[in-house]
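[User] Could I get a sequence and structure tokens?

[Assistant]
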Amino acid sequence: MTINNRSSQMLKGILSGCILVLLGQETLYGYTLSLKLEKIGFHEIPKGTIYPLLLSLEKKGLIIGKMVPSPDGPSRKYYSLTDEGQTEKRQFMLDWQTLRTNVDTLLEDDKREDNDL
């Protein structure tokens, strides 16, 4: 996914939800989280985007960070979901399904109209 200014705000909300989903699967530190996002298709996300989102989610009480010593260098901050984060993750998943269904319906209707012309 290529990022431009027009889609930046929408992407931040989606990324926040995706971060919650990934952290619901396992505890991760920032760099590994960005690699997992790249692996699922979020390419070209500026590295400076992930950490502010993590900070925002932490301030909202949705995730918690814990410094863990690393055998490869400095300590790393690992993030996991709080109970509130679990609730927010489930809500994001419900909201996403509704949004996806609505947009798919709109696009299919538009496609049919184009074919009728």
About this structure: Strands lie at 28-29, 63-70, 73-81. The mean pLDDT is 89. DSSP finds four helices and three strands in the chain. Residues 83-116 form the longest helix (34 residues).
